[in-house]
Amino acid sequence: MNPAFFVILCAGAVLGLLNAERSEDQPQKRFFKPLASLAFILTALAAGALNTTFGALILAGLVLCAIGDVLLLSRAAPGFLAGMGAFAAGHGAYILAFAHGGAVIGPAAISSAIACASLSAIALKPLWAGLGSFRAPVIGYCLVITAMVAAGAAYWAASPGDASLQLVGAAAAFAISDISVARDRFGPGDFLNRLWGLPLYYAAQCLFALGV
Fold it and tell me: In this structure, are residues 43 and 11 in contact, taking their beta carbons and an 8 Å threshold?
């Protein structure tokens, strides 16, 4: 089936999820969020993810992130920590994909790592007091996603082109979307965070899925 079908399915599910988030409808959240995540996995499969090692690694990252999505449906601390762990593992799979694709550490990787780390520090500064026992896990997660963005930039530098640039965009969008998650969990947890963060996150995952 055409990957575009599943991208459209993902977009529709995200719209349903946003409506559920706005109205705080938990049953709808539990329906639309896994559906949106399943859709980006199906996008990757339809795009041929199983045909190459690179694609299989991206698919593994998508599956791990989908598990994280489900775990984050819970507001309880253990579920949130488990979700962070699943996402960190997903970033690890993306890093392995970029390394397999020939990523080479250089100016692009270093500059993107500095930019991502700086953005994380700026975003976390007003939230720091509210992190409490999550400080160490959050810092660790920020380091992992910074490494993922840097690996994406290194992959693009080694193989410049539209396909690799798309994956760099996916990595950057993913990192930025995580700011909304942090603000929602540790700061002003209002719908506005989810209104921009969720579409950006799912767009990033669809870009990853289409880049296999």
Answer: no
Query: Mean pLDDT over all residues of the chain?
Result: 95
Say whether 48 sits in a helix, a strand or coil. Answer: coil
The pTM score is 0.95
First to last CA, the chain: 15
- Structural domain of 206: 3-210
Q: How many domains does the chain have?
A: 1
pLDDT tens-digit map of 146-176: 999 999 999 999 989 999 999 999 999 999 9
| Dihedral sign of CA atoms 129, 131, 135, 138 in order | negative
Tally of CA atoms within 13 A in the half-sphere of 83 that contains its CB: 19
Distance separating alpha carbons of residues 155 and 118, to the nearest angstrom: 21
Residue type, 4: A
3-state helix, strand, coil in the chain (%, to 5): 85, 0, 15
- For residues 212 and 210, give the distance between their C-alpha atoms in angstroms, rounded to a whole number: 6
User: Distance between CA atoms of 91 and 87, rounded to whole angstroms?
Assistant: 6
Among 107, 177, 183, 172, smallest CA distance to 146 is for 172
With a cut of 80, say whether residue 189 has pLDDT above it. no
Block residue for tokens 């969990």:
185
